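Encode chain A's predicted structure.
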Amino acid sequence: MSNETIYLPAERLQAFMEKVFVRLGVPADDAAVCAEVLITSDLHGIESHGIGRLKMYFDRIREGILNPLTTIDVVRDKGAIAVWDGNHGMGHVIGRKAMLKAIEKAGQSGVGIVAVRNSSHYGIAGYYAKLAVEKGMIGVTFTNARPSIAPTFGTSPMLGTNPICFGAPSDMEYPFLFDAATSISQRGKIEVLAREERETPSGWAIDKEGNPMTDTPKLLVDLIRKDAAMIPLGGIGELMGGHKGYGLATMVEILCASLQNGKYLTDLRGFDDNENRIPHALGHFFLAMDVEFFTELSDFRKTTGEIMRKLKSAKLARDAEKVFIAGEKEYESIRRVRREGVPVIPNLQKNIRIMQEELGLDDELIPNR
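Encoded structure for chain A:
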């Protein structure tokens, strides 16, 4: 195994991840979807949700808390609205099907919404919004998550990092694509820091007394033990707007739990009262809006593009490179990663090696040196 970061072609990583999912019992078509969602994250430069997350799914399927066979029950389906139960299957598969159904409904009614309960981690939210954007629609998705964020003026981890994602087509080379956690940093970023053996920046998380936590391995353990919490967007207290991040995280929780009668807050820990592992039972929300029910798509693209271009023309701050638009860095990352490969650090190589050996994959992605 290399002691240095290596760069692997995205296509090779995607094929490897697909094989891993198949060996774990995920049907071939579903495995392809899971691998596509993960490699999209790596292509976007979001290292927390790509190949770096594969070991998490590997462990959860092996532990029996994630069902490799995804079955979906339709709880309600009325006009533009549907409610589904994912039966603790693969979140990527559930998410793709749900957004495609929302897109179908939007094509009929202008708006389509699918709410999902009893799902699992579905990767980057941006993948699903882009499905709508590719059809000339606005795409919105939210998901709740295992408890990490403390409410403003509290120290207990109660809300998930609950991302907000909004995508819209434009006439530029890339769409507007906003995809961000409602905490200062997503939990996956902490996991990346752990693999890189780096400290967590002060201000991202606190212990149960409200003191800053920077010990990354301890933070990950204490989040599970409920002895630490992450901070909502804006920071501690209200002075810098922490209550706004807290409010947005709660909004996501309501849309991902209340609408579909799903689990919420600390019930998403993944443990029962006796601390035995159980499915996380996450909830998702998907919305698609057909632009042409409002205006001509060409006009919408042009106006959105003009908004983006005018924002980029703002006077630059001292030492700033340029003004970025949500979705621009991802667009640039895709071109760079396609050219240079996906970075795989030594500790991630170690995890890949474990999966290779335990699943008996004969094509070695990471050679044992």
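The longest strand covers residues 111-119.
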